Amino acid sequence: MSQKMTARLFRRLVDDPDAAGGLSDSARTAEPGSFLRHIVALSGSKIADGLIDPKLVLSWLLTHLGAGPLWVGLLVPVRESGALLPQLITTPYITAAPIRKWFWAGGSAVQGLCAGAIAVAGMTLQGATAGLVIVTLLGVLALARSVCSASYKDVLGKTVGKSRRGTATGFASSAAAVGVIVFALILLFDLGDRLVVVTAALILAAGFWLLAAAVMASVKELRSAPDEGARLGLGQFQLLRSDPQLTRFIIVRSLLVGTALAPPYFLLLRLDTALNQLGALVLASSVASLLSSYIWGRLSDRSSRRVLMYAGIAGGLVLSSVVVLALTGLITVGGIIPVALFGLMIAYQGVRLGRSTHLVDMAEGDDRAPYTALSNTIVGLVLIVAGALFAAVAEISVPLVIGVFALMCWAAAALAAGLNEVQADA
Predict the structure, then answer these.
(1) Is 371 part of any domain?
(2) Measured between alpha carbons, how far is 360 from 356 in angstroms, rounded to an integer?
(3) pTM of the entire structure?
């Protein structure tokens, strides 16, 4: 694409193309191209995420292969905690590097290779062996994702202006949702053997991650002064004492984990029909992302604090409604679960985009990577503890678990009201 076309498209997608808060003069000159490359790379990565979704797609695959409930139950905790916990270790190496896009590009490439290997395992293995291999590969994929997560906000902050970072991530989420919707429709209308379709989707995911790696590698990132004095390991927990706003943000984010953990419990409410609804569930999740991500992103650029409040309220409403439907027996009505998942995923997209934009805008320069690592590590610990605790409680009552998630969302919305308006100085 020519430089003139790039600049024209950039001006169409952003509100104020001449305002570039937080960027140097050189980065401002390269911003139009960087902005579009971020959208393309993130779109590829997010399409891959949707195609390999552990909550729906990999759960179906392991169930089909007869891996057993143990391995199916490990998918979401391994994926989520593995992507978050290692960041206290990896962040000092990232902040010590003058160019940080290579960490994201490398992590994306490793995710692509793991997705391809999962596809091969799905075609050649059965039973517990398939479960062990696929969960192990997912763990490696999650570790690679943790490197991407720890490096991305810093790269985004160095190459895209403060007033449009949420727009870039939101646009990418919406664009990616279109690709996943196609996948969902193929499943929904039985346009091929379901195992063949799922395997093909995993191979496509591998390709999208490799493409995203190549695109991110071409972003023009200026060299940073290496942060040789980066806070290592447990020392980063001192940030909680020095920045009360960071502490509040992490508490809000931790309370909102229910929007990510709840979908499998929705399926447990109607386990008899869950496997036959894979297409409808993937479609509901994808359409929710398509319709809400760009809007959430634009709203985040104006007030990520309000986005976190609204997402918490939306999550609380949906989860509370599901509890009522379950207790009254109306949850058995056809289509209720996909509709509930649709509403929850709208809230989840708000959580994802609000938390990402808020963290990038509240931290400056070399603080971004330590803030990101500490936040992700604590939330990873919360996910492990909450995942184990709620799995045990679900043996007694699934609606009780969903009800606790609802209360957590309501509490998060209340606490988010006390966050600073970090976009005020954009």
Answers:
(1) yes
(2) 6
(3) 0.74
